[in-house]
Specification:
CATH topology of the largest domain: Metallo-beta-lactamase, Chain A
Number of strands: 19
Radius of gyration: 22 Å
Bound molecules: zinc ion
CATH superfamily of the largest domain: Ribonuclease Z/Hydroxyacylglutathione hydrolase-like
Helix content: 10-25%
Structural class: alpha/beta
Order of helices and strands: HEEEEEHEEEEEEHEHEHEEEHEHEHE
Shape: globular
Strand order of the largest sheet: 7-8-9-10-11-18-19
Distance between the termini: 52 Å
């Protein structure tokens, strides 16, 4: 019924359903139930539950997977999210939003559905959302990674019939080294810069990646790290949630110039090349990202060093997770969807299709560069 792997499922699903209805009518049978979750112009909508997941247009009730800006937009009258992500969501969407925080695995009845949140291992509080109607179970991952990360809850494998997965790094070239090994490389680079009397300025997304670096580095030092103004408040929220990280000091853009030679500085990628960088003469720059796995990306983006550290699943992690859920149907949201869909169909014999959404995946486009 679905033959094209590049077409988006919001088109495909409608076409497929019309086809099925037509077939059902021609046989005199009843039309099948609609999908439990559908991509609409507002977001991933669950009509049976009366809610939308990670919407991008105004809705009444929104279930939010995590606080990155491509998933958490201030467009809902009410929000439900994991308890651990509530402080981050209030910071990003407004302190006065109407939000209900739920415990991991706690079951809520919403319309005809039962809903629960399960750790996605992506950033602090990030959740997969499990939706059940009768015997049918769907899981939407948001962004996720099964790899160990001392700055957030460990990923939980949730069995389901239909699995909606991200596909940010869904190419075989994306294989992640162990996070501790990468932290050691960062620490060694920092020490090398110290010996050369230069600042080491490391660019990392301000929500999640920066805190992961600060947490991983506790294995090697207890020194203070100097952080950009976009990183500090989020780091403080992590600290209040009990995440152990290196001490940090906010760089005051209006304060007197300081000497950062030999210091490690953490900043969002948007600060690279900005006026803000003028305070770090002779700095060596590094970037922490899964994109650094591909040769040439570091040079093209003008970084001295690239560190392969991602908060998304690598290729093998995606395949292991998908097969681990036992799902017979897989829908992909953002990233290298076409490659993943083709592999799942051709190699694993799964019913797979692409679901068109507005999620970005690498969060780069949503980073603040202002101090
Ligand atoms: Zn994210």
């Amino acid at each position: 019924m679905i033959t094209c792997c590049t077409e988006s499922v919001d088109t495909l699903a409608v076409t497929a359903r019309k086809h099925t209805y037509a077939m059902a009518r021609s046989r005199g049978a009843q039309a099948p139930d609609a999908d439990l979750i559908e991509a609409t112009t507002r977001g991933l909508e669950c009509a049976a539950g009366g809610f939308t997941i990670d919407p991008w247009k105004p809705v009444e009730l929104s279930l939010i997977t995590h606080a990155h800006a491509d998933h958490a937009r201030a467009v809902a009258a009410r929000y439900i999210a994991s308890k651990a992500s509530v402080p981050l969501l209030r910071h990003r969407l407004g302190q006065d939003i109407d939000i209900q925080g739920v415990n991991w695995g706690e079951r809520l009845t919403l319309g005809e559905t039962t809903v629960s949140f399960h750790p996605a291992g992506h950033v602090l509080g990030s959740a997969q959302i499990r939706i059940q109607r009768g015997e049918e179970v769907w899981v939407f991952t948001g962004d996720y990674k099964p790899d160990p990360d001392p700055s957030c809850e460990a990923f939980e494998l949730v069995p389901c019939d239909t699995f909606i997965t991200e596909a940010t790094f869904a190419l075989p070239v994306y294989r992640w080294p162990d996070g501790r090994t990468v932290a050691r490389e960062i620490f060694d680079w920092w020490q090398q810069m110290r010996r050369s009397g230069r600042p080491a300025v490391l660019f990392a997304y301000s929500l999640g990646k920066a805190q992961r670096v600060l947490a991983e580095l506790t294995a090697f030092t207890d020194e203070t790290v100097h952080v950009h103004g976009a990183v500090e408040p989020l780091t403080e929220l992590y600290r209040q949630s009990g995440i152990k990280m290196l001490p940090t000091q906010r760089i005051d853009p209006s304060g007197p110039r300081e000497d950062y030679a030999g210091k490690l500085v953490l900043a969002p990628p948007g600060a690279n090349g900005s006026k803000w960088m003028k305070r770090f003469p002779k700095a060596s720059t590094g970037f922490c990202s899964g994109w650094m796995r591909v040769r040439g990306n570091r040079r093209r983006q003008g970084y001295d060093r690239g560190f392969v550290l991602s908060d998304h699943s690598d290729w093998q992690g995606l395949l292991d997770t998908i097969t681990g859920t036992g799902a017979t149907r897989v829908l992909t949201t953002h990233g290298q969807s076409a490659t993943l869909v083709r592999y799942l169909r051709d190699e694993l014999g799964l019913n797979a299709a692409e679901l068109r959404t507005r999620y970005a995946g690498d969060d780069a486009s949503t980073e603040e560069a202002d101090p």
